[in-house]
Amino acid sequence: MSTGYILKGILVMAFVTYLIRMLPLVIFRKKITNRRLRSFLYYIPYAVLAAMTFPAIFTSTGSAVSGAVGCGVAIILAYFRKGLLIVAAGAAAAVWLVQMMGL
User: Fold this and answer.
1) How far is 47 from 58, CA to CA, in rounded Å?
2) What is the pTM assigned to this prediction?
3) How does pLDDT run across 1-56, given as a tens digit for each residue?
4) d(CA 68, CA 65)
5) Contact 63, 54 (CB under 8 A)
6) How far apart (Å, rounded) are the C-alpha atoms in residues 92 and 97?
7) Staple partner for 67: which of 6, 23, 58, 81, CB 3.0–4.6 Å?
8) How far is it, in rounded angstroms, from Cα 42 to Cα 48?
9) 3-state secondary structure the chain
């Protein structure tokens, strides 16, 4: 691949990313007064994050069992309102333990 081809690809990706972030600001100039629409838009980032993260949990470790255990530990720690660092470290430790046990 040539340098020009790579730079064109980077520019196209930058433009598309900018366009995706800019369109809502251009389309919705006034404050949104519809309560249902505001509620829907409030939860969209969480839904997108979950849709992107959840499948990767079970495929990233090579073992669905260790992924499920790590996910379970993370959910339990988050339920008890532990900090993000503790949740991430606990899930990683649980995955490591399960993989060391050979499951």
Assistant:
1) 18
2) 0.59
3) 789 999 999 999 999 999 988 888 788 788 888 899 888 888 888 888 888 888 88
4) 5
5) no
6) 9
7) 58
8) 11
9) CCHHHHHHHHHHHHHHHHHHHHHHHHHCCCCCCCHHHHHHHHHHHHHHHHHHHHHHHHHCCCCHHHHHHHHHHHHHHHHCCCCHHHHHHHHHHHHHHHHHHCC
Give the C-alpha separation, 73 to 65, whole Å: 12
Q: How many CB atoms lie within 10 A of CB 98?
A: 19
- Calculate Rg over the CA atoms of the chain: 20
